[in-house]
């Protein structure tokens, strides 16, 4: 009695809960595995019976037709026997398929019930061990580069930085509205496109000060914009659909390093006199 009261007051130990659910889940998973094997075995057995029915049924039909023809010497009797034999064979095959399909449906129903029970047991285990609360705390306080920061703090900082960037774009838009007055449509469109590129960069997570900015491509000959955009500081080739003018830009090659640059005043090294004399001696011997 006292032990029972102590158990009620202290609560269930975690080890007892884990051991109990381990046994239950092990039994359920074993049942699921056995049912899956039974389902596979049922399908294999159906194929085996169908092959046997076709083979032995065809053999019996051929032998029976031979006996009928030998006894009656009548083609009509043979044809009637063939039709009846095929009909009986199809009926047997249909009945065999229905029998195994019924067995298969029973196994599938048991398998579905076992899977539902398995999921329910897992949910009970998660609730009893406070899995969701523990997991949410772990996910929250193991964020950042070193997995040791608060996710909410990081999100607040990121939202704040995005808000500051958008406020800067809003101020830039107000300045742009005052600057475009009295300018041509071409200049106004260029400035507007640049501002929209910055907005898209901020929304996509890019930095405003990035060098690879998306800019509209304008033909140098006809000075028309056909809806094509390019990235700055990249190589490209463009043929204007209006005038056929070919424009091309090759990305700048990296500058040569100091080791690759040859000094202008460097002269070829002279061979030592001893080496030169040795070479002359060898050449005279060959001659």
Task: Write a structural description.
By secondary structure, the chain is mainly α. It contains seven helices and four strands, in the order ααααααββββα. Among the domains are: about 15-160; about 215-250. Strand 1 (about 215-220) and strand 2 form a beta hairpin. Helix 2 runs antiparallel to helix 3 and helix 5 packs antiparallel against helix 6. It is flat, with a radius of gyration of 44 Å.
Which key features would you list for this structure?
two-stranded antiparallel sheet, 7 helices, 7% strand, 4 strands, disordered C terminus, 68% helix, 287 residues
pLDDT averaged over residues: 75
Helical element count? 7
Label the structural class. Answer: mainly alpha
Report the major sheet: 2 strands, antiparallel
Q: How much of the residues is beta strand, in percent?
A: 5-15%
In total, the number of strands is 4
Q: CA-to-CA gap between the ends?
A: 121 Å
Q: What is the rounded Rg?
A: 44 Å
* Topology as a string of helices (H) and strands (E): HHHHHHEEEEH
- For the biggest β-sheet, the strand order reads 1-2
The coarse overall form would be flat
Helix content: 55-70%
Poorly predicted tracts of residues:
253-287
SSE arrangement:
Elements (H helix, E strand, L loop, with lengths): L1 H9 L3 H59 L2 H54 L2 H10 L10 H29 L5 H19 L10 E5 L6 E7 L4 E4 L6 E4 L23 H14 L1
Antiparallel strand pairs: 1-2, 3-4
Short description:
The chain has 287 residues and is mostly helical. The protein contains seven helices and four strands; from the N terminus they run H-H-H-H-H-H-E-E-E-E-H.
């Amino acid at each position: 009695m006292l032990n029972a009261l102590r158990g009620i007051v202290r609560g269930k130990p975690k080890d007892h809960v884990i051991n109990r659910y381990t046994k239950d889940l092990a039994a359920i998973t074993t049942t699921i595995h056995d049912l899956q094997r039974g389902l596979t075995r049922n399908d294999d057995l159906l194929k085996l019976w169908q092959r046997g029915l076709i083979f032995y049924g065809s053999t019996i039909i051929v032998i029976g037709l031979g006996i009928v023809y030998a006894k009656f010497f009548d083609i009509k009797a043979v044809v009637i026997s063939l039709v009846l034999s095929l009909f009986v064979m199809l009926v047997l095959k249909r009945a065999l398929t229905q029998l195994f399909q019924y067995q298969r449906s029973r196994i599938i129903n048991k398998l579905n019930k076992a899977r539902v029970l398995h999921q329910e047991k897992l949910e009970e285990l998660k609730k009893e061990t406070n899995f969701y609360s523990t997991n949410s705390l772990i996910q929250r306080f193991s964020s950042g580069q070193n997995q040791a920061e608060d996710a909410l703090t990081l999100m607040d900082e990121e939202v704040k930085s995005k808000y500051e960037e958008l406020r800067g774009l809003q101020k830039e838009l107000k300045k742009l509205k005052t600057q475009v007055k009295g300018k041509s449509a071409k200049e106004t469109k260029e400035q507007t496109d640049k501002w929209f590129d910055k907005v898209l960069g901020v929304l996509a997570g890019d930095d405003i000060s990035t060098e690879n900015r998306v800019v509209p491509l304008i033909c140098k000959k006809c000075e028309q914009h056909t809806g094509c955009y390019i990235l700055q500081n990249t190589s490209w080739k463009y043929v204007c659909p209006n005038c056929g003018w070919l424009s091309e830009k090759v990305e700048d090659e990296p500058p040569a390093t100091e080791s690759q640059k040859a000094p202008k005043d460097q002269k070829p090294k002279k061979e030592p006199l001893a080496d030169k004399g040795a070479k002359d001696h060898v050449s005279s011997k060959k001659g």
